[in-house]
């Protein structure tokens, strides 16, 4: 079983959200994590913004994996947002981003952080999986896709 199992609580999945900018996407993710983790959305927002200053977390093909570290966090957790409209995100292919997997990890989780990012990259590199995520109208189905994912590594 891979690192993605139980990483994404079903309540942290939002689909077809009307967002207009990178800042709005980060704010929406901040709200999700504030609700699920009890950490202020501003703190979450700043963690994502700080990481993004090092370079875009967009992969291309309409996908981004914004991630950040929080000292007080006990375990890694994720959130998923599918935007109803594409967001400019400085992607390598210059295309807008629709699918966002947000990852928050404890500051000490260096190796696990890299393993999770690797698995997410593999998952989002699988066209049949991405197609299912794009077409699903049910957060439960999207949750199951991430929960069932097993790394090829």
Describe the structure.
It is a single chain. By secondary structure, the protein is α/β, with parallel strands linked by helices. The protein has one domain (10-148): 3-Layer(aba) Sandwich (Mannitol-specific EII, Chain A), CATH 3.40.930.10. 41% of the residues lie in helices and 23% in strands. It is built from five helices and six strands. It has helices at 22-37, 41-52, 110-124, 127-135, 139-148; strands spanning 13-17, 58-60, 63-64, 67-70, 77-87, 97-106. Strands 1, 2, 3, 4, 5 and 6 form a six-stranded mixed sheet that branches. It is globular. 37% of the residues are buried.
Supply database-style keywords.
153 residues; Mannitol-specific EII, Chain A; alpha/beta; 23% strand; 6-stranded mixed β-sheet
- Measured as a percent range, the helix fraction is 40-55%
Counted by DSSP, the helix tally is 5
Order of helices and strands: EHHEEEEEHHH
Whole-number tally of structural domains = 1
Helix- and strand-based class?
Answer: alpha/beta
- DSSP strand content: 15-25%
Q: Report the strand count.
A: 6
Whole-number radius of gyration? 14 Å
Task: Give a short overview.
The protein has helices at residues 22-37, 41-52, 110-124, 127-135, 139-148; strands at 13-17, 58-60, 63-64, 67-70, 77-87, 97-106. Strand 2 (58-60) and strand 3 (63-64) form a beta hairpin. The chain has one domain (10-148): Mannitol-specific EII, Chain A, CATH 3.40.930.
Topology:
Blueprint: E1 13-17, H1 22-37, H2 41-52, E2 58-60, E3 63-64, E4 67-70, E5 77-87, E6 97-106, H3 110-124, H4 127-135, H5 139-148
Parallel strand pairs: 1-5, 3-6, 4-6
Antiparallel strand pairs: 2-3, 5-6
